[in-house]
Amino acid sequence: MVLNRLCCFNPPTYPVLKSLLIVVMLSRLTSAAKSLDQFRRTAAKTLITKKEKLSTKMTAYPMDLSDRPAVCNLVPAGQCQFNTTFQSVTLLDRIPCGEGGTSFILRFGLPDVTKPMGLTTCACILASAKLMDREKCELVEVTRPYTPISTNDQVGCFDLLVKDYGENGYLSKYLCEDLLIGGEIQFKHIDFNIKIPAPFTQKKIGMIAGLIPGSILASGTGITPMIQALHAILGDGPSDQKSATEEVTLLYGSRNKSDILGGDMLRKWASMFNEKFKHIDVLSHEAADSDYNGERGFIDKAKIEKYLPPASLGSDVIIFVCGPPVMYQLLCGPRNEKEVTGILGELGYSSSQVFKF
Description:
Radius of gyration: 23 Å
Largest sheet: 6 strands, antiparallel
Order of helices and strands: HEEEEEHEEHEHEEHEHHE
Strand content: 15-25%
């Protein structure tokens, strides 16, 4: 009996064969996608290596958060490779991190791959891309600030830790989902992006970042400037770059355990520097029956009083705050206003004791 040449695509007649074909096709597509992604990564790195003699030190710095050391390598302002004009650089690699599946380390090349980035601490850079406006249905320029989690010990490239906020994130979604390995995006650095300078003179530092009531974004907001400051406080470096800080405490709000951006690195540092650094997670949506035994709810007045150094310490204390606008409103007043209001104002902190990133 001769079968019709099209019979294998007849679902009612050959459902088992159809299922088998689908499995084979999906397997081949998955394999092809992985191969293509690996090709792009290799091509991006090879291109830069051949054209610009990329330093081998670039690939030596670990991409795994739990393996990244704290490094103090401070430079004065004015040495950053990025200036006031946007420059295009290549996305070299992007790997997921943490348990939630929505956080990524993104490694970018530098304009001069024989040198470190030269970014002062604390400071950020601006990323820009032309993206489709969903309402206007036209391309618009989208610019957002990002603080690298790498240091000036890293030559030839720099790393960003980015959470994909999906449709709420816009540029973060583009960086985490749409920008291809080997593709380019623009960055620049301006004087306004320079924040409080390290080394720090205060003996005790409190840090507040992450999720608070009223925020439409998920966990992770505001943590990267704290990571940058922690590099300067905890990391090995020249004696003249050492901060006077004896104790630093981070209050970090997240939804649940799997959603803590940079959690692996922060937990490791808290373990390594347990006499100097305390990392307090505050989880708002962790399941009641989970094995988590830390703080729950949101960062509030009671938790600030419990964990952070008091205002009574005067010039020996400073509180760093970074997050969405609603966080500033609740904790310390608008970011562009020097006056300290909100919860920190009620607790007696002055404008010289609070820094709004």
